[in-house]
Structure formats: C-alpha cells, structure tokens
Amino acid sequence: MNKVWIEIERDADKAVNHERAEKFTNLLVKLGSSRQVWFNETLNRYCSRQDFIVSELTDSGHWFNLDGLSA
Fold it and tell me: Which of 5, 11, 51, 69 could be 31's S-S partner, Cβ–Cβ 3.0 to 4.6 Å?
C-alpha cells in the first residue's frame, strides 16, 4: 500500500484551529476523500469522521492510502 502522512498544526487560537480543520477537509475533498476533519475544543485535538467512524487524529495527522485517493 502506498501511504502519505498529512499533519495539521494546532494553534493557541481555537478559531485558527477551526479554520485549519475546514481547509484540511477541503483539501481531502479535492483528493477524493470523504473524510471530514474538525477541531474538538473539549479535547483540544483534531478529530475526523469517515463512514460513521469518528476518531482523534494521532499527532494531529493521519496516514492516507494513496491508492484510495484520486487527485
């Protein structure tokens, strides 16, 4: 499997984190992914959802299968 790691940085400003999560989701959509990303203020972490599965992003990033993405 061909994989790529995409990471999103956390900022002290929560509004910046929400904006970055939205941009991350938009990038993933352009790459053909259905994954959605948002910033969870309670956990102070980025989270994602794909196919009804919700998870925290490990180290603020995720390994993506390049074979499953279509740019």
Answer: 69
